[in-house]
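re: ur question from earlier - yeah i can do the single chain one, its not a big deal. heres the input i used so u can compare w yours
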Amino acid sequence: MATKEDLLSDVLRLPPEERAEVAHKLLLSLEEEAEDPEVQAEWSVELERRAREVLDGSVKTVSWEQVEERIIARLDQQR
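and the output i got, formated as tokens:
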């Protein structure tokens, strides 16, 4: 059986895209282990509520471009 050092060494020799895929799968595996059914149920209720608000027009959406502009403006203010 390979040690974690051996595995890490092997993974670090992969091309960047493949390393990113391995990292992504490792992070997903941690999220799956940390899933709490009660928390998942609460998130489902919240996501459903937010989706209804968007569909019935009770909240105003903004484009990604507007969000990006706001983020950049805030970052510029912090400098």
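The chain has one domain: 4-78. not sure if urs matches, ping me
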